[in-house]
Design a protein that fits this description.
Layout lengths: L2 H26 L3 H5 L2 E9 L2 E3 L2 H13 L6 E13 L2 E11 L12 E10 L2 E11 L1
Parallel strand pairs: 1-6
Antiparallel strand pairs: 1-2, 3-4, 4-5, 5-6
Length: 135
């Protein structure tokens, strides 16, 4: 790998980690609008029993979650793999879990593996596809 490639990879890693940190902060604040802004307009989100196919659908789902069972929750997201797949695309595989309000530890049964597909447009990284499944 050339020095230029290493610099680009490092910059991508930093930008991706910043996006994931902003995601964590927005979720911890229970801010559905801020969470949704990290997705592309045509983003896809897939979880057990759920398929959402737009930023607006993700926003409404998150708003309902934060107004209901996810109020006060916070995510635990530890990237395992950050891999550039192109100049403006990356894939992140993370260990993930959601601590509900009052929880201090994640139960084994609540541990997930998440895949984020990221795209950069106009210099801004966003999630274009997301999926999670039991770990």
């Amino acid at each position: 790998m050339s020095h230029a490639d290493q610099n680009t990879t490092t910059q991508t890693d930093v930008a991706v980690r910043e996006l994931l940190d902003r995601f964590q902060s927005a979720w911890t604040s229970n801010d559905a609008d801020a969470v949704a802004e990290m997705y592309t307009e045509d983003a896809t989100l897939v979880m057990t029993g759920l398929v959402l196919d737009s930023k607006d659908a993700i926003r409404e789902f998150m708003r309902a979650a934060f107004d209901g069972p996810m109020r006060g929750s916070r995510p635990l997201n530890e990237p395992r793999i950050i891999r550039r797949t192109g100049a403006d695309t990356a894939v992140v595989v993370s260990d993930l879990g959601i601590l509900l309000d009052g929880q201090t530890e994640l139960a084994e049964s609540d541990k997930r593996v998440a895949t984020f597909v990221l795209a950069r447009a106009d210099g801004v990284w966003r999630v274009t596809a997301y999926h999670n499944c039991p770990a």
